[in-house]
Structures are given as structure tokens and as C-alpha cells.
Amino acid sequence: IGSGSINNNFWLTDNGTAGSGIVGINCASTGSVTITGNNMSGIRLDGTRAGAETNFILIAAGAGAVTIDNNILGGASSSVSIISNSPFYGIKNSSTGGMTVSNNTFQNISHNATTQSIGVLYNAAGFLTCTGNTFQNISSASDCSGNSAFFIIDHQPSAAATADVTGNTIQNINWTYTGATAAKLYCISVNTA
Predict the structure, then answer these.
(1) Nearest CA-CA partner of 60 in 108, 123, 113, 10
(2) What average pLDDT score do residues 123-136 get?
(3) For 154, phi and psi rounded to 5 degrees?
(4) What are the distances in angstroms from CA 141 to CA 30, 97, 120, 134?
(5) In the chain, beta strands by DSSP E
């Protein structure tokens, strides 16, 4: 989706109303699904719509057990850029079936919201196995007052679920914070409820 070498190759403008959102790959299957070998880069989101309903998600999983392996989210020479005041998720899972995320590259992601948060890998339900991923060249200018945090890896299931987070690389992270909210940058956050 987009281009690995040209910025703004896939340009989305969201001037919609509440409930709008953009998803690159949506997995709603109740069975086991593997998402592998995809490249998403050269993507830009802007527009006047602001707030938590305007979710920009590259890969969303909401049912079944999901394996996300060997994908590139953000190109080596092109970026994923958020200009509007929208939250951003590289991967967002809400399935109690759990998620395995391995050997993916998250890079050249620029989040220029004013108050909305960024969660590069967010697991809201089920187990999380997160191994061998690279997170690099990721920046945000948001004060993150929407939920008071900037997360790289975030495991926060609503019920007790295991997490195995090993062998990942997190580097070249830049957060320009100027807000009054007591927000935090979490490289790895594990809360198993």
C-alpha cells in the first residue's frame, strides 16, 4: 500500500465527522490468520477531522488468533506521515485470540498531531508474543493529552493474558513534547491485568 520510494504516494484527507477512520489491512476473521510480506509506506493522512474517532491504523485485528510477520510499515526512503490531529497505530489488536508479531520493521513514521496519541504496536486483548521486530526513526510532536502516553510496544489486555516481548530493537525515537499534561514515552509497557 503506497510506495516504498515516494512520499505522499497514498494521500488521505479526512474532513469527516465522528466515527471516521482509516485502516490499511483489517482482519475480522474468527479463524487463525497470518499477515505477512506487506509493505506500507509513502502514506500521508491530513484533514480537519480531529479526535479519538479518527483512528489511522495500518494493520487492525479484531477476531481470531493473528500472526503478523515480516511486514514493513514505513519505507526506507518514504514515510508514514500523520498531519491531522489523529491517533496513530501501526498494529492494533482487540481480539482475545491473541497476537504474534515477529520480524516486522516499523520505521520513518512521523506523527504531527497536537493532542492525540501514538501506539506503534498496541495489544488490547489476548496474549502477545512480540519478537525480533525493529522500531526506528519514529517521531511525534503531540502532547498526547488524549491518553497521556506515547507507546512503542503496549500490552494492555482487559483481562489477564501473557506477554513475551523479546529480541526487539527500538532506536532513533524523537518526541517533541511541549504540553502541560503529565504524559510519558513508553518504549515497552506490559500490563497483564
Answers:
(1) 123
(2) 95
(3) -130, 115
(4) 37, 34, 15, 21
(5) 10-13, 21-27, 33-36, 39-40, 43-46, 55-61, 66-69, 72-73, 80-82, 88-93, 99-102, 105-111, 118-123, 128-131, 134-140, 149-155, 163-166, 169-175, 184-190
How does DSSP classify residue 146?
T
Q: What angle do CA 2, 112, 7 make, to 5 degrees?
A: 25
DSSP annotation of 155: E
As a whole number, mean pLDDT of residues 18-30 equals 77
* Cβ count within 10 A of residue 159: 9
Task: Tell whether the model's pLDDT for residue 17 goes beyond 80.
Answer: no
Does the pTM surpass 0.85? The reply is yes
| Three cell numbers written together for 37 | 510480506
Q: Which residues are CB-contacts of 107 (< 8 A; sequence separation ≥ 6)?
A: 72, 73, 74, 75, 76, 134, 135, 136, 137, 138
Question: Cα–Cα distance between 95 and 82 in angstroms, integer?
Answer: 26
Cell output for 4: 516504498
